[in-house]
TrEMBL record:
Protein's recorded name: Acyl-CoA dehydrogenase
Domain Acyl-CoA dehydrogenase C-terminal: 258-380
Feature: compositional bias, Low complexity: 1-16
Single GO term (MF): flavin adenine dinucleotide binding
This protein's UniProt keywords: Oxidoreductase
Length: 417
């Protein structure tokens, strides 16, 4: 019997390249972020059209290490300062504002871990690259039951909820259907509740003027059991210490988004001016320089306030050791960054005239994005009232923006000399 010819051996598939080691420093995360900025910019129209981050963009961001930057060294994390975190969010936002916004929100996971018992947090976050989304203001209802709470409600502005691993939500606490009093004489207690993303239903409401790609949809949670150990309040640090174990830490890197957009808009305007040969035009020179001056001053205000805060906290001090002006500068500089970015983009939009109005132009998207993000509470008059009241020894309406979580006597203002 004839022997069948032998088949050639199948070529072995090439071995997959090993995944890069997780970044351990701010410099490495920033380097990785800058490497993906061109792709983020190229996909901005797609991100806006999809009204959420495509999952491969989420994974692109995850690969930079941005979502792990708040985890402490003791966890194997990079434990980046708020200054470093803001610089990284600024760089991502330079590429795409929605990506920057979602990175800013999603990177809070490691910050929340400090307000949970360490064994609980480590069980919840087996990977340092997990993403948390959700609305912190208490709009839900948490009924006390044995071992925890039954949580129900509907929340708005769940930025990144379409790709999150965990969802954190504020809720008022009830016992047997009646409001549960809180500490410090609060007539109604509230807590932050963390639930797995699979226990959350997304309601697709995110049809907006700007920041469309952030996917900041409404979401609902219906009668979900939340163990008591998966709840937190910002007045109690349960593990960790230092500059990041502070009640307002999750607000600090927010100005990276508007600062990144303002820088992108200025660079874009200068490139267009150069391409048109309009660099000798007097009005153009004045507008560009005026916008540059505003960005320099606003950026200096943000980083200067955070640098002073970090210096004091890293030396073992507390937020109460800041002078009233230094403490007020933190929320005020954040608000000013948002408002200044909107002003810069608006002036450059006018300067570039008709080329700004077509949607393929990034100026159109940046104009809408900056107007939308200025509706966030950190950019609103409530911040001015809170800082002003604090400086005058009166009651802030939003004390958390100043890092105040408990009732304190009004006394920030210095006595008259």
């Amino acid at each position: 019997m004839a022997t069948a010819p032998s088949r050639p051996a199948a070529a072995e598939a090439p071995a997959a390249a090993p995944a890069p080691a997780p970044p351990r420093t701010g410099e490495e995360i920033l380097r990785r972020v800058r490497a993906i900025v061109p792709e983020l910019r190229a996909r901005s129209s797609e991100i806006e059209r999809e009204r959420r981050l495509p999952m491969d963009v989420v994974e692109l961001l995850r690969g930079t290490g941005v979502f792990r930057m708040g985890f402490a060294h003791g966890w194997g994390g990079p434990e980046l300062s708020s200054i470093e975190q803001t610089e990284i969010i600024e760089a991502i936002s330079y590429g795409d504002p929605a990506a920057g916004w979602c990175a800013m929100i999603g990177s809070d996971t490691g910050l929340y871990a400090a307000f949970l018992d360490e064994p609980v947090a480590k069980e919840m976050f087996p990977s340092l690259d997990m993403i948390t989304a959700g609305l912190l203001f208490p709009t839900g209802r948490a009924e006390i039951v044995p071992g925890g709470y039954r949580l129900s409600g509907r929340w708005q502005f769940g930025s990144g909820v379409t790709h999150a691993d965990w969802v954190i939500s504020g809720a008022f606490v009830y016992r047997d259907g009646a409001p549960e009093p809180g500490p410090e004489g609060d007539p109604h207690d509230s807590k932050l509740m963390m639930v797995p993303r699979e226990d959350v239903e997304v309601v697709d409401t995110w049809y907006t003027t700007g920041l469309a790609g952030s996917g900041s949809c409404d979401y609902t949670i219906t009668d979900v059991f939340v163990p008591a150990e998966r709840t937190l309040t910002f007045d109690t640090v349960r593990n960790g210490e230092g500059p990041l174990a502070q009640p307002e830490v999750h607000m600090r890197n927010m100005p990276g988004v508007p600062l990144g957009i303002a820088r992108a808009a200025l660079d874009h305007a200068r490139e267009l001016v150069a391409a048109r040969g309009k660099g000798d035009d007097y009005r153009t020179q004045v507008v560009v320089a005026d916008c540059e001056a505003d960005l320099v001053a606003s950026r200096h205000g943000v980083y200067g306030a955070m640098r002073r805060q970090h210096e004091l906290l890293a030396a073992g001090g507390t937020l109460d050791d800041l002078t009233p002006e230094e403490r007020a500068a933190l929320p005020l500089s954040r608000r000013h960054a948002f408002r200044t970015a909107r002003s810069i983009v608006g002036r450059l939009y006018d300067l570039l005239q008709t080329s700004s109005i077509y949607q393929p132009s990034p100026m159109d998207r940046w104009l809408r994005d900056t107007h939308t993000m200025c509706q966030h509470v950190v950019a609103q008059e409530r911040i001015l009232q809170s800082a002003g009241a604090y400086l005058l020894g009166a009651k802030p309406g939003f004390p958390l923006c100043l890092g105040i979580t408990a009732a304190k006597p009004a006394g920030a203002a210095r006595p008259a000399s």
